[in-house]
Specification:
Blueprint (H helix, E strand, L loop, with lengths): L3 E8 L19 E5 L2 E8 L1 H4 L1 H7 L3 H21 L3 E2 L5 E2 L2 H10 L1 H11 L2 E10 L32 H34 L4 E4 L5 H4 L4 E11 H14 L6 E9 L10
Antiparallel strand pairs: 1-3, 1-4, 1-5, 2-3, 6-8, 6-9, 7-8
Amino acid sequence: MSGLRYVYAVCRPFGTPLSAQLTGVAGVPPKQLTHHGLVAVVGHVPEEDFAERPLRAHLEDLDWLGATARAHQNVIDALTVVTSPLPLRLATVFRDDSGVRTMMEEREETFLRTLDRLDGRVEWGVKVYVESPEPSPEPAENTQSSGNPDSRPAPSPAKPVSGRDYLRQRRGQHRAHEEKWEQAEEFSRRLHETLSGYAEETRIHAPQNAALSRASGRNVLNAAYLVPRSESEAFVELVDRTKDDSPGLRVELTGPWAAYSFSGEDS
């Protein structure tokens, strides 16, 4: 088949076949390309999309980039079920099979060393968010007393009547915000220390930008954990037990993933 070679990952040889229905980038099923003790998982992609110039233009197209990233991840997810892959950067492309084998030859020692370190392990992601406060409900415009004090609407906070009152309220709000943030940081620190006991390696990533992630709340902890598959069930149960430990905080668990954060590859 003509076209360029798109490389998803490098692995040790694995015996369990991938699903016959699995397709990757450009709708093409991935195949295995063996070289010495390594396997590159590759797919054929058209030059009109993946040669250097059109690829550079496509990477500015968010819709195209998103669809390509999802197809790439589908293949990585399928590999993670049957082996411990070393995922390569999105849109890693070579001219032909010979170019892929040359890359594997040049980086063979590094690949083998990294695959030994990742063998039998997966990545779990844990994020902690400070929940945004719920907006106060609008008071009813026309209410009649039922005679039951409990049925009356709660009084709204008093409006400041002077500049001094306004500043006092703002200082109180600022202190409350600082206390909530300190509690969130302390919770995240303790959670990270506990989860690290189940992980062989950890990575603390920069907090996610809410405008980009579209996740509600403010991200306090954004961490990745390299966990043996044999410890993963206990790891997940531990995260689940913490989710209700601190009101106003949200704990999110993602995975299991291929070990992107621990591969040494740009993802």
